[in-house]
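User: My instructor asked us to take a sequence, write out its structure as tokens, and then describe one feature of it. I'm not sure where to start. Here is the sequence I was given:
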Amino acid sequence: MAALIVLRPWAFLLFLVLVSYDESGLESSTRNGIAQATQRVFLYPQSPKVSSIVSTKYRTAYHFQPPKNWINGPMYYNGIYHQFYQYNPNGSLWGNIVWGHSVSTDLINWIRLEPAIERTTPSDINGCWTGSATILKGDRPAIIYTGADTEKRQVQNIVFPKNVSDPYLREWIKPDNNPLIQPVGQGLNSNQFRDPTTGWIGPDGLWRIAVGAELNGYSAALLFKSEDFVHWTRVDHPLYSSNASTMWECPDFFAVLPGKNSGLDLSAAIPNGAKHVLKMSLDNCDKYMVGVYDLKSDTFVPDTELDDQRLWSRIDYGNYYASKSFFDSKRGRRIIWGWTNETDSSSDDVAKGWAGIHVSKSASSCITYFPLNWTIWLDSNSKQLLQWPVEEIESLRREELIQHMIFLKQADVEIHFELTSIDSADPFDPSWLLDIEKHCQEADASVHGSVGPFGLVVLASDNMEEHTSVHFRVYKSKEKYMVLMCSDLRKSSLRPELYTPAYGGFFEFNVEKENTISLRTLIDRSAVESFGGGGRVCIMARVYPVTLINGGTRMHAFNNGTGTVKVPQLKAWSMRRAQVNVKKE
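Assistant: Let's start with the prediction itself. The structure tokens for your sequence are:
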């Protein structure tokens, strides 16, 4: 949108309706004390009865999702992207886990293949759990994964492709010497020993992997070495350990160059000046540390160590877990995938017949799995990972918003907010960092502030009885400004028994270098994925508005602060449906 929009205090502007209707009109009104300038498309009836959640309208149109049942794992090889994922072929709840397998040439459209790894041997008979792919010398792929053996111990197994000339790598074989690594050793819990990382080569020419574990009651990324990627020896010290928690799931370890949005291949020489990132899954979210990989001691040394894990940096501040990154040699970037679960009930998942989607991102520091693919990389000050949707998602864009109104079913929205005055910002309280979700609840979009809240209301019903708010507030600390980004789901649906939190994260705002705060939000039916401040805070959310089933939803830009906010840039696109998990005959 070329024209400048000015959001004066307590302004509310409707600009998108996420449905297809013919009738339109113009309306100006005031509701709940908030001045509105809105363009009405259609006053579709609101059903007095909450409709069934069993609807294809909640199933995402361009996020990765299996055709049915439960999902939970990536590799680029010879021109093909491979997505492996934990999959229950017998139902939409946890259990009977095998490795599903889908392939793509563009990260958007996916072909579904037969499962790559199934429960067929004593070392994985009770489940084929998370693992990682590594491209070995001679351009040969290998996957090391966690299996649950006959005693339900967690052990590490390996598979190789049966035929590397098959572009889809349909069949994988298990050597007779599985399991490669067993949970033996003092202080090791055999039920908390899983999720091997992608391998890397150290200065001694030996392969290394890390495995998440509970060691002497604390969390650890255990380090293992091998000459041939088959015979492994545990190093006498972990890659890193912490007494702040008891177990790390799905560890990830990779190198990044500060300020460069290109990725680094761990199997190649790491350039001078590179940092390393150690990511772990705990507390129902993915956290990470930035530091250096000390080659002499063979350990990861974080730049900053915080005793309180609530203060650790997060990959995503919303519904996002068990992420896994990989190096995309095609484009020289690092991509991260993550899993986002349903936030309805287990009985709803059974009734629908499916649960969970994958998100993938790319990052300027590095790194997400079933939401969209993200690119990931490290910012120039070496403190924070930045993430952004992979550029391939833009191939799904259709009509661009030209006027205040456009009819959309799925949307990609980019909006920039320009602050006219920031000196009056409310003071920042560091204690908010200990429970950001609580602060987002207390300072929600209805609470007036000096600079904010301002942002978007998405998937809203005509009467605003249902809506999801994605918004910012700016605070002033002693030496810098802090921006709070919230994605508030508490009024997202009239359905009972849903998990509807108010997610939130903070990022620093440099007034001397920045004059706008950007927000990009991808709406895909029940998925709302938001990137604030150029990817400094990412929030993935799942919502189930009744309005989406009964007719359609609306989107608004708003400012509920006392200061004026300008919108110098507003762009939005309707999104085509991707071909996800089309079965390959």
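For the description part of your assignment, you could build on this observation: The longest strand covers residues 565-575. Try explaining in your own words what that tells you about the chain.
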